From TrEMBL:
SUPFAM superfamilies: Concanavalin A-like lectins/glucanases
Any Pfam family hit: Gal-bind_lectin
Gene source species: Meloidogyne enterolobii (Root-knot nematode worm)
Keywords linked to the UniProt accession: Lectin, Signal
Domain Galectin, chain residue ranges per copy: 44-183
Recorded GO MF terms: carbohydrate binding
Signal sequence residues: 1-22
Record protein name field: Galectin
Length: 216
């Protein structure tokens, strides 16, 4: 039997939440008002450029309607959806309870995934639903280095997805007929750095200190 001593562990009752409360672009953002769904947007043609590269930013602001079943946000390459286009990033929000069966794992959850060159879905990453039916929502996608997408849901950091090459992203696809209403879609090619944080620095006023912990 082995034991290992951990000299100090700090547990805090509160936790830091990273948010993007107000994003400014270095140039005029591309803005769509009252976007109809489903919609496919040619990102190259509208001036967003090819690739979802560092400092690029997408914001979807809308409302999840009552009795929503499911909605999707895909970042895709050239080609036709589910036929010739790769989908390096797929955000799918499931708002229903399936009967017992093979799809019961989709009950009330959010799934991140991708479709590779073999036209097959990759390994799904599942999370709790960040949005509620009948309420407004904000979904933000921030491009980070190393083919990484940072996802924010309602001003809270939700997940990080890093799997496929994002340099050939050329299309944005949103679907959710009768499930979501898109009030605005903002495409930003470069986020300006800010000199002050959106929220005060993280402070743990009442930390709980555990010393000399022993793992048996």
């Amino acid at each position: 039997m082995k034991s290992k001593t951990i000299y100090l562990l700090i547990i805090c009752a509160s936790f830091m939440v990273t948010t993007i409360e107000s994003t400014m672009c270095s140039n005029n953002p591309i803005v769509y008002k009252n976007l109809k769904v489903p919609s496919t947007i040619d990102l190259v043609k509208v001036g967003f450029g090819r690739g979802f590269l560092p400092d690029k930013y997408i914001e979807i602001n809308g409302v999840v309607l009552e009795r929503t079943i499911k909605f999707d946000v895909f970042l895709m390459g050239d080609g036709e959806l589910f036929n010739t286009a790769n989908i390096p990033f797929a955000f799918s929000s499931y708002h229903y309870t399936a009967p017992p069966g093979p799809r019961i794992e989709l009950n009330n959850m959010t799934k991140l995934n991708d479709i590779t060159n073999l036209r097959q879905w990759g390994r799904a990453e599942r999370y709790r639903l960040p949005f509620k039916e009948g309420q407004p929502f904000i979904l933000e996608l921030v491009a980070a280095p190393h083919n990484t997408i940072i996802i924010y849901a309602n001003d809270r950091r939700f997940a990080t997805f890093s799997r496929e090459d994002l340099s050939n992203i050329s299309q944005l696809y949103i679907r959710g007929l009768h499930t979501i209403k898109i009030n605005s879609l903002i495409l930003c090619t470069k986020i300006l750095p800010t000199t002050t944080p959106a929220k005060p620095p993280f402070l743990c006023p009442e930390p709980i200190g555990l010393y000399n912990l022993v793992r048996v």
